[in-house]
Specification:
This protein has 459 residues and is of the alpha/beta class. It is built from 13 helices and 20 strands. It binds S-adenosyl-L-homocysteine, iron/sulfur cluster and FE3-S4 cluster.
């Protein structure tokens, strides 16, 4: 979200979901801005509030209803003062439960599914007439076309940026709502992605993360042949000013040889990979419809490490999938021990209506899920701490992104996505310096800029 003037009539967008949801929120804020609703910092200052929701787990989906409860209060106060307030629900809960939201929450004025946010101006117009529009068709082509038109003026001044290059998912893991909320996999046209990346580089962005639910399944057929993610990286590597390329999220099945080679051959492709495995038990992987075994995953990691020895790995895990025995859970712990992750996310299985997992018997008791999650997180935290501790004494290139919490401090990212704090002037923000890592903190590393690097930024 970006800030704007605090004029009445402001727009407020709150993001609840994944990075694609955050990216969409910035586009929604851009659209609101063009409608005269410049971004404001709090709901209380806004004339239009858009909640960009996430449906991935029950807790995420519930948040929107508690938030709506609070906003309803603001709306009442506004009505009494004779000042308008429009409330919209966007994102994946909107897609899954849009009609239900309109029925349950009289305060909601419009609903926009994740492939329909380009229809925001039309939704606002209808909402002002009291029509309560529900836009939840899958219109990914139109959304991508709209992205091409957007000038993205709200990205200015940033060092790193997201670019969505692929939407939707055809994998249908049995626990997951994404194929239903985001629709079928579709890739954005390569020339549009390149144009957006060039525009961002021109605006000073140095680090781009390409986004998609299955971003490594990116595939676009141009007149000059098929564009894979690896080929796209080659093209983006040629953009002057761009220093770092990242991507998320990937599926192990789409980790193709050319992409692995890109980690070896393209210096701008960062040595970091988020590759969810979910479980280390073949029985559970099968029930999850992941379509690979634990061995396949470990073998893939070995191939990646052979191509790029220092690659830092991150993953997602689910504990307590229906039918998960203690032995299945031990297999997950063994996989984590074997691979060694730099960071990871782990979740308790959450039953999602409409997914095949919700139909399965043998749901795991909450207490067991809690215990397993705590044990897994203990191991993953220890591995993350070990990874950070291992960086002490090393020289890492740090791309500075913002001022630190204290005066005279600046904060940046290592190639492995760690946050690094050093003492240094604000005018280094946007440039890369080699730093010696001195000590690990709880969520970041502390270091010092190495001397004798001249005025030139490194990459
Ligand atoms: N497309 C990505 C990410 C999907 S959502 C992928 O394929 O990995 C991000 C993570 O949320 C998933 O990797 C999974 O670990 C978790 N997740 C998805 N559905 C879930 C559910 N029903 N319960 C708990 N965690 C879930
Ligand atoms: Fe969900 Fe699986 Fe698709 Fe990832 S690959 S979005 S976990 S269905
Ligand atoms: Fe959530 Fe939708 Fe992203 S369900 S994780 S906001 S794709």
């Amino acid at each position: 979200m970006s800030k704007g003037s605090k004029a009445a009539g402001g727009g407020y967008v709150k993001s609840y979901g994944c990075q694609m949801n955050v990216y969409d929120s910035s586009r929604i804020a851009g659209l609101l801005d063009r409608q005269g609703h410049a971004a404001v910092d709090t709901p209380a200052e806004a004339e239009v509030i858009v909640l960009n929701t996430c449906h991935i787990r029950e807790k995420a989906a519930d948040k929107v209803f508690s938030e709506l409860g609070q906003i309803r209060q603001i709306k009442h106060e506004r009505a009494e003062a004779g000042r308008p307030l429009l409330i919209g629900v966007a994102g994946c809960v909107a897609q899954a439960e849009g009609a239900e939201i309109l029925r349950r929450e009289a305060s909601v004025d419009f609903v926009l599914g994740p492939q329909s946010y380009h229809r925001l101006p039309e939704a606002l117009e209808k909402a002002r007439r009291g029509e309560r529009p529900l836009f939840i068709d899958f219109e990914t082509d139109e959304k991508f076309r709209d992205l091409r038109r957007s000038d993205g003026g709200l990205d200015r001044g940033k060092v790193s940026a997201f670019v969505t290059i692929q939407e939707g998912c055809d994998k249908f893991c049995s626990f997951c709502v994404v194929p239903y909320t985001r629709g079928a996999e579709i890739s954005r046209a390569t020339p549009d992605v390149v144009t957006e990346a060039e525009r961002l580089a021109g605006a000073g962005v140095k680090d781009i993360t390409l986004l998609g639910q299955n971003v490594n399944g990116y595939r676009w057929e141009g007149r000059d042949g098929v564009w894979t993610l690896a080929r796209l990286f080659e093209r983006l590597s040629a953009i002057e000013g761009l220093e770092r390329l990242r991507y998320t999220t990937s599926h192990p099945l789409d980790m193709s040889d050319d992409l692995i080679a890109a980690h070896r051959d393209l210096p701008k492709v960062m040595p970091y990979l988020h590759l969810p495995v979910q479980s280390g038990s073949d029985r559970i992987l099968r029930a999850m419809n992941r379509r690979h075994t634990a061995r396949d995953y470990v073998a893939l990691i070995e191939t990646l490490r052979a191509a790029r020895a220092d690659i830092a790995l991150s993953s997602d895990f689910i504990v307590g999938f229906p039918g998960e025995t203690d032995e299945d859970f031990r297999a997950t712990m063994r996989l984590v021990e074997e691979v060694g992750f730099a960071s990871a996310f782990s979740f308790k299985y959450s039953t999602r209506p409409g997914t095949p997992g919700a139909e399965l018997g043998d749901q795991i008791h909450e207490t067991v899920k809690k215990e397993r999650l705590a044990e897994l997180q203990g191991l993953l935290d220890a591995q993350a701490a070990a990874f950070n501790a291992n960086c002490v004494g090393r020289s890492l290139d740090v791309l500075f992104e913002k001022p630190g919490r204290h005066d005279g401090q600046i904060v940046g990212r290592s190639p492995y996505l760690q946050s690094v704090q050093v003492n240094g002037p604000n005018d280094l923000i946007g440039s890369t310096r080699r730093c010696t890592i001195e000590r690990p903190g709880s969520h970041s590393l502390f270091g010092a800029i190495e001397q004798g690097q001249g005025g030139e930024a490194r990459n």
